[in-house]
Here is the input.
Amino acid sequence: MIGGLAALLLCQLAGEMLARALALPVPGPVLGMALLLAALLARRAIPPALERTADGLLAHLGLLFVPAGVGVVMHLDILAQDAAPIGLAILGGTLVAIGLTGLIAARLLRR
Here is the structure.
C-alpha cells in the first residue's frame, strides 16, 4: 500500500509543481489526477499496489467529507449571508451538469 500511496502523492506533487510553475488557475491535485490518468492510459493497466491503495481509500471515503462538513459549520454565517448567490450557483451548476450529461449520453447512445 505504501507504493500506491507514494504514486498518488507523487502525482499530486507533480500537479502542484506544474500549477505553480505555469501559474495555472487549476488546483495542483486536479492536474496531478490528470497526470495519473494519462500515465494509466499510457500503461493500459492499473498496477496492483495502486489498485489496492485506491480501494482502501474508497472504502473510507466518507471520512474525507468530515473536514468539509466542519468547514461548512464553521462558516454558516457567511453562507447565510450569501445564501442567494450560492444557491443560484449550485442550482445553475447542477442544471448545466445534468444537461451536458444528457447531451453526451444521447450522442454516445446514437453510436
